[in-house]
TrEMBL record:
PROSITE patterns assigned: PROKAR_LIPOPROTEIN
Species annotation: Gelidibacter salicanalis
Signal peptide (UniProt feature, chain positions): 1-22
UniProt entry keywords in alphabetical sequence: Signal
InterPro entries in alphabetical order: Lipocalin-like
Lineage of source species: Bacteria, Pseudomonadati, Bacteroidota, Flavobacteriia, Flavobacteriales
Protein name, entry field: Lipocalin-like domain-containing protein
Domain Lipocalin-like: 28-117
Length: 139
């Protein structure tokens, strides 16, 4: 009986832990920043965003991130600028490696669900995103 209880507790703990492999499926999509926590612990909440981040990730774990400006008709405007990215599972973490002609950097995915994305950069700044819901105004 003790073995069954111990195994049950172990399964429960393992299923509740963050699994970085499971984060991969949630990264792609349209995200808007909800809150930023700086390294000193101070926070800034975003009640309105005029841009959203679009992450596109392929099956080969490569892709890009792009800033988009949503319109009320459901379309987006953007520049040709994009940051190439590669996702890598390393040391029980999901890391995003970005590359542009000007810089390379890394961010770590702390949490990724259908509705939330939490990323921390190398300066220990945490970006909490929420899934973007477009507002479409019909004529």
């Amino acid at each position: 009986m003790k073995k069954i209880i111990l195994c049950s507790i172990l399964v429960l703990v393992m299923s509740c832990s963050n699994n970085p492999e499971g984060f991969v499926t949630h990264v792609s999509g349209y995200w808007e920043i909800d809150e930023v926590t700086l390294a000193d612990g101070s926070k800034r909440e975003y009640t309105y965003n005029d841009t959203v981040d679009y992450f596109s990730v392929t099956d080969s774990l490569t892709g890009f991130r792009k800033k988009l400006k949503p319109s009320f008709d459901g379309t987006y405007t953007t520049s040709d600028d994009a940051e190439s990215l590669t996702l890598k599972l390393e040391n029980d973490s999901l890391n995003i490696y970005y590359s542009t002609p000007y810089a390379n950097w890394k961010e770590t995915v702390i949490k990724a669900t259908e509705d939330q994305l939490l990323i921390v950069n190398e300066q220990n700044v945490r970006y909490l995103y929420k899934r973007f819901e477009p507002i479409i105004v019909e004529k």
